[in-house]
């Protein structure tokens, strides 16, 4: 997120706030088409970096366009307390699904059930993860919203129901591996459960962004969707904050605040 | 396939031929709803076990309902000389795709290009498989019709294009493993290529069977789809013939003929 301090574009004025995929830089010159204006300052600005920004769009479109949860189905989401996962779970609840979140540590799992209203939260850092997951999905899994990958997800795949859908948003557990990490190949699982698995990048759903942002803003204003944020202060905190995405030490959307505003 | 020798069902007469998933048994009593009549004896009966039977339905529905190949796209199929794969490749050609078949040995690869009209055939049993595959798909892969699984398919996945589709029909290379065989996990590949992978069993597409069988019969009668068969004679050949499915020693549809007819 950035503030416009000089503009040659008709649709941006000095003082406007914009979001975009921007470099870690204090002052930048950017093509007006590469940034999006923030409609109002009525809600905290950081919401436009989480539930009302790309993470919210990613949650909304991946869950609803690929996962298509139905009333009474079981939805599992990994990295469930994160900026994307937390919104996925809350939308799935709104759609009438039973929602199981996977996260690491007591603080995050309690947040999922106590604050966000998930039905069950399972701690992947505990030794009894596989057992607790099995107990959490007595009717199997209809939608698994995949953010994490790795051994965690291998356990989830064991419980896929017939015609399950798996939107694959990311595999953050594996991004820092120098070699491909090995696991059970997925083909037999997909045939047995006649399941669909689809990788996506949010940009492919740009036609839905307007609908998604309006709907999300409505749910936020009605208190149906809550959004957590971890704010670190100061430009020099950027590397530390970035590393937290991989260690799991952040909570909700990781934001670095570089200005008083 | 069986011949009706006694019938209490209105729609079956003595002398009719039927197909179905039936046990290895010389005389059986079967529910009339579990078998399908063969419309005519104008074509060789074994075609109702291959291109005009379940393998043909499997090829047609998986390719067209999940793979959705478009004119000019590249379609790769594994177990390409088999009862399903050979039909997949020929339908993809009819739809205007560039078709690459993967099979084992000179005889099968030559059959694909010389008889069935595939654009390229790649021999997975040769040491240069990975290299030859790469050369065979200079524009990447848009549809991979998966019959085989294992290390062979890991190589194929390296070449998936953006928005590729992977109908997963089977993973015959792994069925006899007692433990899950390990390979690179698929999540990162799916996200990078925004690809769709979907396991299916032909029964899910039963609504399309009528359309599929009529279209396939038309293509067969026009000479656009050819079908190969390996016939072993004698009821006692069943176990040997079954094992050939896993060793790759059959050619096209494996049939055991137990009667003169």
From TrEMBL, chains A, B:
One Gene Ontology MF term: oxidoreductase activity, acting on the CH-CH group of donors, NAD or NADP as acceptor
Top-level EC class as recorded in UniProt: oxidoreductase
SUPFAM superfamilies recorded: GroES-like (SSF50129), NAD(P)-binding Rossmann-fold domains (SSF51735)
Domain Enoyl reductase (ER): 3-256
The EC number(s) this enzyme carries: 1.-.-.-, 1.3.1.-
Keyword Kinase: no
InterPro entries: ADH-like_C, ER, GroES-like_sf, MDR_fam, NAD(P)-bd_dom_sf
Superkingdom of this protein's organism: Bacteria
Keywords from the UniProt entry: Oxidoreductase
Keyword Oxidoreductase: yes
Protein name, UniProt field: NADP-dependent oxidoreductase
Organism from which the protein derives: Staphylococcus schleiferi
């Amino acid at each position: 997120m950035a503030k416009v301090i000089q503009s040659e574009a008709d649709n941006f004025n000095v003082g406007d706030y914009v979001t975009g995929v921007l470099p870690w830089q204090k002052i930048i010159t950017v093509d007006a088409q590469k940034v999006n204006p923030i409609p109002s300052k009525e809600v905290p600005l950081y919401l436009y970096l989480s539930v009302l920004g790309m993470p919210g769009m990613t949650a909304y479109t991946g869950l609803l366009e690929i996962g298509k949860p139905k009333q009474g189905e079981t939805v599992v989401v990994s990295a469930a307390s994160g900026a994307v996962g937390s919104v996925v779970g809350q939308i799935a609840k709104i759609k009438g699904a039973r929602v199981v979140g996977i996260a690491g540590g007591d603080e995050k799992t309690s947040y999922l059930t106590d604050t966000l209203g998930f039905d069950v939260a399972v701690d992947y850092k505990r030794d009894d993860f596989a057992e607790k997951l099995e107990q959490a999905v007595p009717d199997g899994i209809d939608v698994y919203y995949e953010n994490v990958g790795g051994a965690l997800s291998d356990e989830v795949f064991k419980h896929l129901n017939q015609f399950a859908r798996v939107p694959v948003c990311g595999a953050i557990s594996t991004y820092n591996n120098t070699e491909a990490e090995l696991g059970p190949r997925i083909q037999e699982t997909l045939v047995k459960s006649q399941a669909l698995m689809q990788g996506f990048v949010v940009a492919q759903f740009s036609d839905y962004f307007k609908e998604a942002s309006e709907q999300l803003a409505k749910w936020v204003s009605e208190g149906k969707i809550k959004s957590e944020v971890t704010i670190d202060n100061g430009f020099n905190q950027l590397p530390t904050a970035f590393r937290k995405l991989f260690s799991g030490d952040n909570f909700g959307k990781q934001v670095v605040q570089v200005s008083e505003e």
